[in-house]
Amino acid sequence: MFSRGTFYAAPGFRSRAAILSIAAVLLLPIVRGDAAWSRAIARHSPKHHTPKLAALTPEPFIRGLAASKLSRSKPSAAACDPAKFRIVLDVGHTAESEGAISARNVAEFVFNLRLAQRIVEKLKAEGFPKARLLVTEGKARPSLFKRVAAANALDANLLLSIHHDSVPDSMLEEWEFNGKKSHFSDRFSGYSVFVSRDNPDFQTSFRFAELVAKEMKADGLQYAKQYTLPIMGKNQHELLDKETGVYRYDQLVVLRMTRMPAVLLEAGSISNRDEEVEMQSPERQEMISTGVTEAVKEFCDPRWAILGPP
């Protein structure tokens, strides 16, 4: 989550009119999906391949200018039909603004993209064909509004933003890896889940956040406890669920400006040298993607977790 020059809060944009006026002039992010869902944003857009992304993702992306077509209706998560349920997996940061840098000099964006892809694949395999990957281009702050506009334009039922954690720069230590200077902090580790009370459906957001966090805990993972500590300064946040690690972060743009329930998952700390290695492993990625998928199943229909799909 932590990176130089990256801003997540938007205290000056509280009115819907302000949000729409900003969104109307921004290019929407790249959305991977089938033609039926992409038509909502691709009618005016050429296909575009980003070289950095092409090496990581096998399928082409589609981006478009469609903020003026934002739907005014608020999708409902009630009475979920898995075949129609639209969940967006938002890839945190961009290829141009890569987020935190890991202890071994790998950009957070690479971790985010890889894990989000895996979650989308798992969701589709488990009966949610409308799961979509949302990849955004551009610099840090403008990209926040682009991803919000895209999610709203797609009338998603749920948004999960995927990130990997670090610590504030003041807490980092220097070391050398493969002959290159890098930075690390082994002091903290673990996942964390964030929600915003300013989201138009905070209760539903919190419900899904708890489901995700419970799945992480059930797999034996520990949540990151540093956000409760005074040493975090402005990055200190209220812990809403001390059992599972759900935090309150009202000012996060991607959580407060989307019109659907929205949750942000910090999957683990990549500034921690041991946890970075774990986050790179297929086993940990499979564990997290399975946990998220189980949380979506229960969110969609609590009976699914016991009986399987209808």
Report on the structure:
By secondary structure, the protein is α/β, with parallel strands linked by helices. The protein has a single domain (16-307), classed as Zn-dependent exopeptidases (Aminopeptidase, 3-Layer(aba) Sandwich), CATH 3.40.630. The protein contains 10 helices and 12 strands. The chain has helices spanning 16-23, 35-42, 51-54, 108-125, 140-153, 202-218, 253-256, 273-280, 282-300, 304-307, and strands at 30-32, 47-48, 61-62, 87-91, 132-135, 158-165, 173-177, 180-184, 192-195, 238-241, 246-248, 262-269. The strands form 3 sheets. Strands 1-5-4-6-12-9-11-10 form an 8-stranded mixed beta sheet, sandwiched between helices. The protein has a two-stranded antiparallel sheet with strand order 2-3. The chain has a two-stranded antiparallel ribbon with strand order 7-8. α1 (16-23) crosses α5, α4 (108-125) packs across α9 (282-300) and α6 (202-218) crosses α9. The longest helix has 19 residues, at 282-300. It is globular, with a radius of gyration of 18 Å. The protein starts with 15 loop residues before the first helix and ends with a helix. The model is unreliable at 4-8, 10-27 and 35-78 (pLDDT under 50).
